[in-house]
């Protein structure tokens, strides 16, 4: 360092390397699995785990209830004022009053008003026209005679004599929009067109109403004149036919215009050819609603029932010998061809065209030949943005990806065969316990029980903020006011807690589902007589999950909830930074958000495998997570191969299952199998069926994916704990036998179940310690360990 040369990194001594290696090998959670002496399947000898976390979750629910009672006003609190959900729904007038909710908040109005002053008695009166004003506020306008106006017994006899007009916003629940884009509050929405009556801003409304209420025809005509004048000034709007939509008066003419344009667009696209009956007298929205109500039974029946049936057919097809292998290897080959063929075309066909440009030639001008220098073709990397370099670079990238994919598949080829066997066994397990598919309905019911009070409390809390009017301009001359809510620090903290408890509860429900699936599938695997396994096993798994492991599910879901809450706070700060146009803060927060996303994905993966360890051995969450972590490291290539196969199967299922369901639905509707009657168009029920089927197929595939992960861990445990009398059957048993045969034929040859090292003593070819009596360290997962003179990675 003093001489100016960089210091070489100091290599670990051989003793230090051996200490690190021995530390990995001696880690109690990295040891080869050993079957307990009384091990008789995953369902025996369990105890309650992580009870404090279960108690903490219940306390969190109680705290949410208390916070909700404060937000609804059932319990008074100075820091958290009660809310009113109608403040979120109802419209806001041009002075930021919430229609039907807030007390009036008014400005000073000053509008001219015609007055009649008559002098005389009886039929001998002389009336003159004078002008005064309404020096009242915008919401309440009152004009009364005063003592100074009384002149020799003169009497007031006009529209303004003792005229009192009051506009109390709290009693006007509907919002009616003016041409300016601002709204005023009215008692009810106009149900018919009347261009002789007007709805105006409150101070203008007082003048128009006073003239309109007069008995004088001239005053009535003058009211219409003023109304039209104020309409031109964007202060009034004639009464037009509207309909009430969540407190807003929506013009019927606007809806008709939208429906007319939508129908024209549908006709332009040719959708009228599919109509079954004449729909000329109905708009598209009416037809849409009518078709939904007519066919909702078919939609639900096909979206749920047919999707489940098609899903089981899909699992049956996967179990047919050779089908899954053909599909998976075919897709792997297609992925290779997707990168290889374009790369070869670019390199061998497109790029040589750039090399043909540079050829020696000559040209004759006035009888004299002039030599032309050859133009250098191809890519000059000194000009990397040239077209030739772009083609060559893209070819190199595609060929590099193709080569990398081929190397990965070559290294994982034996593990992919194992993954195929695991996938087929998972299909057998799910088919043996069909009630597993319907357990998400129990989860949905539990989520609904939580969701209803949570939504109510959240709405009240969200409506407790202070309303602030913001002006949004969509043209240079036209602006509208929108309402925004500002919250105190206490209200923001309460909202963050509601978000946290939402994350925790939803993740807890997901964790319970994963535990139930892992318990059921692990019991199926570790039962030699599979005929004893059925739907009863699912109910037994539900009982064990709720009785023994609710605390562990609460522990794992708490970790995910904390991470999600941190991400929500970061997202809130990102919005603040973007609003302040702080690019540096936005970039830093974006990087932190990406890191937290990665942390969340990793923790979800570890949690899932920890739940499987809990299902098999009944561990507490922390111990199960440690065991799962080391198991993942010991079997990293197996997990990678299973991940590839599982992803392929999942994508296929999410595409094929809804496609089959939509086809069946189309046949049912086309031939009216259930006698539902005629439809305006067949696309409405198909659309809703597709949505329900897609989500149902997603749940089905998630259950199947969890079953695959459970079978993998059960296989590893079986391989390590029972070397002489394994539970593996079918394809997995055949894979182990092939590995054992290869191990006997060649000591260094690896079988399809090997992961590192070779099979010994009839063992299953490694398998995370199952292939050697010595412990397998994480650095040995990809093959042989490092040389003795190399540092550990």
Account of the protein in words:
This protein has 793 residues and is mostly helical. It has helices at 14-26, 51-72, 86-89, 202-212, 217-232, 252-268, 284-319, 323-355, 387-432, 439-462, 489-525, 535-548, 550-579, 583-617, 621-634, 636-670, 683-721, 730-745, and strands spanning 112-121, 124-133, 140-143, 163-166, 174-177, 183-186, 194-200, 236-239, 242-245, 248-251, 361-365, 368-372, 466-473, 479-486. The strands form seven sheets. A two-stranded antiparallel sheet has the order 1-2. Strand 1 and strand 2 (124-133) form a beta hairpin. Helix 2 packs across helix 10 and helix 9 crosses helix 17. The longest helix has 46 residues, at 387-432. The two termini are 25 Å apart.
SSE layout and pairings?
Blueprint: H1 14-26, H2 51-72, H3 86-89, E1 112-121, E2 124-133, E3 140-143, E4 163-166, E5 174-177, E6 183-186, E7 194-200, H4 202-212, H5 217-232, E8 236-239, E9 242-245, E10 248-251, H6 252-268, H7 284-319, H8 323-355, E11 361-365, E12 368-372, H9 387-432, H10 439-462, E13 466-473, E14 479-486, H11 489-525, H12 535-548, H13 550-579, H14 583-617, H15 621-634, H16 636-670, H17 683-721, H18 730-745
Antiparallel strand pairs: 1-2, 3-4, 5-6, 7-8, 9-10, 11-12, 13-14
